[in-house]
Design brief:
Elements lengths: L16 E7 L2 E7 L11 H9 L10 E4 L5 H9 L5 E5 L2 H13 L5 E5 L10 E6 L7 H9 L5 E12 L4 H12 L3 E6 L2 E7 L3
Parallel strand pairs: 3-4, 3-6, 4-5, 6-7
Antiparallel strand pairs: 1-2, 7-9, 8-9
């Protein structure tokens, strides 16, 4: 199967569509297509994540949106915090094309968009790593996104993850606690958990 949104080149019949959505007080126009996650609206989990990440409380440094899809999380946060640099990565080349298009059409220029399978192409260290992980890609992929964050965060950097309870939020919380020595639930909303760990050297 090649059409899944978590593969490099989803084999889909293209059907681009554009729609408007308000995030953090800014109006966005998103262009999406078949072969990307949540193509008709910004999914509820991403919305809860966006509204509960405290970017202004982070140490100085860039922010990584891991598994950015067509870009709603990274672009919403980057537009709200123009003084901070954001890196947005995904394994899906179609999603990256759309994220780049969405950055340009919404005039968000403090972002770098690049291909990376998890942390494979990541060399920088970040003040925060934010992810709505691709649960359908499997537990191993999600777990690697959590455990790999530690070495890519600066001291006092934070990993913030959204997961549904039924999609493994409790086990992710345990893994984050094991990896970082801490994990708190920032928010519970309609079955979604916003989990956050802080790296303390």
């Amino acid at each position: 199967m090649t059409e899944y949104y978590y593969t490099p080149n989803p084999d889909v019949k293209h059907q681009e569509q554009s729609w408007n959505f308000d995030l953090l007080g800014n109006q966005f126009t998103f262009t999406t297509d078949n072969g990307v996650f949540s193509k008709r609206t910004v999914d509820y989990g991403s919305r809860v994540l966006i509204s509960n990440v405290a970017i202004s409380e982070l140490p100085a440094g860039p922010v990584l949106d891991l598994g950015c899809g067509y870009g709603p999380i990274g672009l919403a946060l980057a537009k709200k915090h123009p003084d901070r640099q954001f890196t947005m990565v995904d394994v899906n080349n179609l999603a990256l094309h759309l994220a780049d298009l969405n950055a340009r059409q919404n005039h968000v220029d403090n972002v770098t968009i690049q291909n990376s399978d998890g942390y494979q192409s990541i060399t920088d260290h970040f003040a925060a790593i934010i992810t709505n992980p691709p649960v359908r890609a499997g537990k191993e992929v999600v777990d690697n996104m959590i455990t790999g964050a530690y070495e890519h965060l600066i001291d006092l950097g934070r990993l913030t993850v959204v997961l549904q309870k039924k999609q493994g939020a409790p086990s992710a919380k345990k893994l984050m606690t094991t990896t970082f020595g801490n994990c708190k639930v920032l928010k519970r909303d309609k079955g979604y958990y916003i989990l956050e760990s802080t790296k303390r050297a």
